[in-house]
Design brief:
three-stranded antiparallel beta sheet, two-stranded antiparallel ribbon, about 500 residues, about 70% helix
Length: about 500
């Protein structure tokens, strides 16, 4: 099922049968006829449940494990100057991410929606706060994240063929990968889940190679770095906080599965189990990989390395594994993270369009595949445009978005407590311990305050960007403050975009 708005207020329609060709009633002229699918007034479009337990676990693991564990685990070591303390911080961050995922799991089971955190905020705090969320993430942060992931993906892919690929080739390759992975998501959720499962095993195989390299190195009697894991540790409240902040960034993506609320089989049982299995796999993989790094490299080598996994594996297994095999696996790992991110962001845009926070054509679904093709393409198009900005600008935007992310995570944790008082009779197939949202709300406030103290200017810019959504929401959504000429132009543009989106949804077979 999908909806279509004709741009003249004629209403919403649902595409029902791809074989039946009719027309859309048009408010301007009865003579304007468009060849369309069978249409009738309908409720909001709905996705279909095609994701099983293995696919759900794969979405979690493949979205969380990106390039960070292979390329830059040195940020935590640099903060505390000790690989042993860094390993404990990785464990603490893993436990925090698992707790956060299980905490939000209560909302995911009680409010199963494609919007994920957007839908939770909409239900608890109302549309103004929900618009603030999509304004910040779906227009800026998420597309910038997609651009950064694909730049890393194309860089590692091209290094398999070119020693020093030029910048233009990296960006062109990144754009090609965006198109390919967007197409993977458009084909169907079952196909996307199979690709995620395939990529998940490659990610785990890459980590297994790193662990084997560490075991071989220790088996040869090389224990010189193990003895120094806690040596020269420098821990202050600020350094510990930002080391923890960096670790939590590596676990980013733990909320991806909540966007599959309308597409998971046996949601009440599968969602908590998939979260537990997926996050346990991630935490164990991260701990094993970091333990291997600390056995293969000195703390100074870890801090100074631009690609820790390559350096570590080259020490034990040779340059062939370090310079060819690991970059290939890093590229595949980035593909999994990107594939999951496109899935997540596309569902979020789709849910926001259903609620009127984005143009209505973004809520169209393919009639056979039940995939939100326009919503999937929307962030991908923005990401490809961002590729032509300086890379440093995109990375800075991503760093700033972490501050924003914990604002809305904190609101979700607090929202669990609010919703239990506001709607005590709401059906909750899964309930978390009440202490978890309390502790995580406090943790969110602590991280935000500390980040603001260290980077007050950057944090103030981010807050201003978030708050800018309030007047935009009032002018565009609430008051619709446009002149008659502008309104007519927007209506016509909406009509054109709806027709294009209808063509995409009907023409992609």
């Amino acid at each position: 099922m999908t909806t279509f708005e004709n741009g003249h207020g004629a209403g919403d329609y649902a595409i029902r049968d791809i074989q039946d060709i009719q027309s859309i009633p048009d408010g301007d002229s009865d003579s304007e006829r468009l060849p369309l699918l069978s249409l009738e007034r309908s409720a909001k479009p709905k996705l279909q449940r095609h994701i099983g337990l293995l696919g759900a676990v794969a979405v979690t693991v493949s979205t969380v494990i990106g390039s960070g564990i292979f390329v830059s685990p040195n940020g935590i070591v640099a903060e505390v100057n000790s690989v042993g303390v860094a390993l404990l911080i990785w464990l603490g961050c893993g436990l925090a991410a698992c707790s956060a995922a299980l905490c939000i799991c209560e909302l995911g089971c009680a409010i199963p929606s494609a919007g994920g955190i957007y839908s939770f905020i909409l239900r608890i705090y109302g549309e103004r706060m929900a618009f603030m969320f999509v304004w910040t993430f779906d227009l800026i942060s998420n597309p910038a994240g997609l651009a950064t992931i694909h730049l890393t993906l194309s860089k590692y892919f091209l290094t398999l063929f070119l020693a020093d690929p030029p910048e233009w080739s990296t960006k062109v390759c990144a754009a090609c990968f965006i198109i390919i992975l967007c197409a993977v998501n458009c084909i169907g959720v079952r196909f996307m889940a199979r690709v995620q499962t395939f990529l998940m095993f490659f990610k785990l195989l890459a980590i297994l190679i790193v662990v084997i390299a560490g075991a071989v190195f220790l088996g040869q009697g090389n224990f010189q770095f193990i003895d120094k894991v806690f040596t020269n540790a420098t821990i202050t409240p600020t350094s510990f906080t930002f080391a923890f902040y960096n670790g939590l960034w590596a676990y980013n993506g733990w909320d991806a599965l909540f966007h599959a609320g309308e597409e998971m089989n046996d949601m009440a049982t599968s969602l908590p189990l998939a979260i537990k299995l997926g996050m346990c796999i991630v935490v164990v993989a991260y701990l094993l990989a970091n333990a291997a790094y600390m056995s293969l490299l000195s703390p100074e080598a870890i801090i100074n390395s631009k690609a820790v996994a390559e350096s570590a594996v080259a020490v034990s297994l040779g340059n062939v594994y370090g310079s060819i095999v690991i970059p290939l696996f890093v590229a595949l790992s980035c593909m999994g993270a990107s594939n999951g991110s496109i899935f997540m962001v596309g569902r979020q845009v789709f849910a926001a369009a259903r609620e009127g926070h984005f143009p209505h054509f973004l809520s169209l679904l393919h009639p056979k595949r039940n995939t939100p093709i326009p919503a999937l393409m929307f962030p991908c198009v923005i990401a490809m445009l961002l590729l032509f900005l300086p890379t440093t600008s995109i990375e800075s935007l991503i760093q700033l978005s972490q501050f924003t992310m914990w604002i809305f995570y904190g609101l979700c944790f607090l929202g669990i407590i609010i919703l239990r008082r506001k709607e005590p009779n709401l059906d909750r197939p899964y309930k978390t311990w009440i202490i978890l949202p309390v502790v995580l709300t406090i943790l969110s406030v602590y991280l935000l305050v500390t980040a603001f103290i260290k980077n007050p200017v950057s944090s103030a810019v981010v807050l201003a960007l978030v708050l800018l959504s309030l007047p935009v929401h009032f002018l565009v959504v609430v008051k619709s403050c446009f002149s008659p000429v502008a309104k007519a132009g927007l209506d016509r543009l909406s009509d054109v975009l709806c027709r294009i989106a209808r063509t995409l949804c009907c023409g992609v077979s």
